[in-house]
Write a structure and sequence with these properties.
This protein has one domain. By secondary structure, it is mostly helical. It is about 75% helix and about 0% strand.
């Protein structure tokens, strides 16, 4: 069982299309449907997590370099999501410090970098948003 995204997706689809409708009108039906939706979204998030983190890390390192910040955050020892998350989180602390310093400046370079940082933050927030799952019609 190596495709966790697929497993969570199938489990979620089963809960939404087969289990929840049979519990319709029952409080449990809502719980089954919600668990199904969460499973599908978790599968999607799991599938893209390493790629998203890798992209964020590269963008943060680039922004820090543009800001002239020397960063002593080592690269992740592996592509495990937990390792990539630690690297991204340490880099994000540096990015916060950089943004705090450029937000107080009035020069054009600082304004441009601040705008780039905000674009990065908006892109990463959007990348974390789950897409709405599409389910086949429920079985009756």
């Amino acid at each position: 069982m190596t495709d966790i995204g697929m497993v969570l997706g199938r489990l979620g689809t089963k809960l939404v299309t087969e289990v929840a409708p049979k519990l319709e009108g029952d409080y449990s039906g809502g719980h089954a449907a919600m668990a199904g939706l969460m499973s599908v979204m978790a599968g999607e998030a799991w599938d893209g997590a390493a790629d998203r983190l890798f992209t964020e890390i590269g963008e943060i390192r680039s922004l820090l370099q543009q800001g002239g910040m020397a960063v002593d955050v080592p690269e992740s020892p592996s592509l495990k999501v937990s390792d990539l998350t630690k690297e991204r989180d340490f880099l994000a602390l540096n990015l916060i410090a950089l943004q705090a310093s450029v937000e107080t400046r009035e020069d054009e370079a600082a304004k441009m970098l601040n705008a780039q940082i905000w674009v990065h933050l908006m892109k990463t927030a959007q990348a974390r948003m789950p897409s709405p799952p599409v389910f086949p019609d429920a079985e009756g």
